[in-house]
Amino acid sequence: MKKTLLATLVIAVTSMSAAAFDLDGADRYKSAAELGIMEGLVVDADKQVNKDNAFQVAPYNRWAYQNMRMFYPTSDIAPAEEAINLERAIDASVKNVMVDNGKGEMRTFDQFMTETWGDGIVVIKGEKVVYEDYRNGMTKDTPHQLMSVTKSFGGLMALMAIDAGKVDADAQITKYVPELKGATGFDGATVQQVLDMTNSMDFSEVYDDPTSGIRTYGAVLNFTEKLEGIDYPSSMYEYLQTLGKDTKHDHGEIFHYQTPKTDVVNWITNNVNGSTFQEGLESLWNNIGASGETYVLLDGNGTPVAGGGLNATPDNLAKFATMMLNDGEFNGEQVVPKAVVDTLAAGGDRDAFGNGPDASDNMPAGEWSYRGQWWVKHTEGAEAFMAIGIHGQWIYIDRDRDVAIVKVSSAPDSVTPAQELYDLNGLDAIVKHVSK
């Protein structure tokens, strides 16, 4: 089955000519500095990053993903009152890992990082960082655009609200967001269905159609141009109330990955917690001893882009991944209830996943599912749950083998089957090596 773009807020942007770069040849894997992007006091026009090309246009994203707040409004996520440093016990042998690139060719770790446009990777075993590698100007303390990895943080907060008894997962969504009565893409669906993206919603992700759902969504967020003659909703929340049901499917029948569902999950959590997405992240950041700079992109109304706006450092993401790997415990404190982590690891409805449009050769029916805004792999001996964002963003948790990996990238394509397989092969090869 054809797979839609993976795990992100995908926004159609105005393509900018990349004629100055040979992206199919010698320039394909070069860093932003090697390409001269944003280098010097006066930057040549064809090497200038701006709002039109920062989000998804290669190779400008090689620089932009470490500098997103220069182009979009943002809100800070405050660091912890007291920073906690992860212990490091570096295993240099990780650099000797060989990775199948998906074409049957074994590539070195260095080639894997280069050929997947990796900007940084952190490998955790137990409670220690055992390997890290940074490229393209990245450091462990550089915030990086995470795309739809953001969704998984919102999903986690919702699961914690359910665990705390604030939300009934089997209740209809309109119990917590009455404004959605009549919006048949949500009305009649349960909280769990929206959380797992199995509610039936009519929302097209056709990027070359300026009137499609995803283009309208982007325009409402003020991330894409508004067309003349169209009366757009004034806010994301108003837009969500206009979304109807996919008449071909009932709620709960199939998994269909669609970004506005995440906004509704966040709406529920905000209502029951009486706090914002930023405040929820700040509480989590405080509990894991996060330090330095973290921020989230805002739409034109100052609303956090919970579907794909988080920018965080590899070091803070490694602290988060360490906590999730260790059943929600970090530095002797239970940050996330173990039952919540168990729920994620158990996964969602495999039949709904397999019957939907997002199953693929890389994520086949029966072996994958989606639960609480996280992707779950059920392959025997290699079970894992993960947060994924386009252009190569990963938080990969394998509790059975006691290994977690954070990888941030600036790949030129949002996702391709070949690129996705190469990353999946690389992450599994690293887990196998470290868990020996």
From TrEMBL:
SUPFAM superfamilies: beta-lactamase/transpeptidase-like (SSF56601). It holds the Pfam family Beta-lactamase. Coiled coil: none annotated. GO terms for molecular function: hydrolase activity. Residues 107-423 form the Beta-lactamase-related domain. Keywords: Hydrolase, Signal. Its EC number is 3.-.-.-. InterPro entries: Beta-lactam-related (IPR001466), Beta-lactam/transpept-like (IPR012338), Diverse_Enzym_Activities (IPR050789). Residues 1-20 form the signal peptide. The keyword Chloroplast does not apply. PANTHER family: BETA-LACTAMASE-RELATED, BETA-LACTAMASE-RELATED DOMAIN-CONTAINING PROTEIN. This is Serine hydrolase.
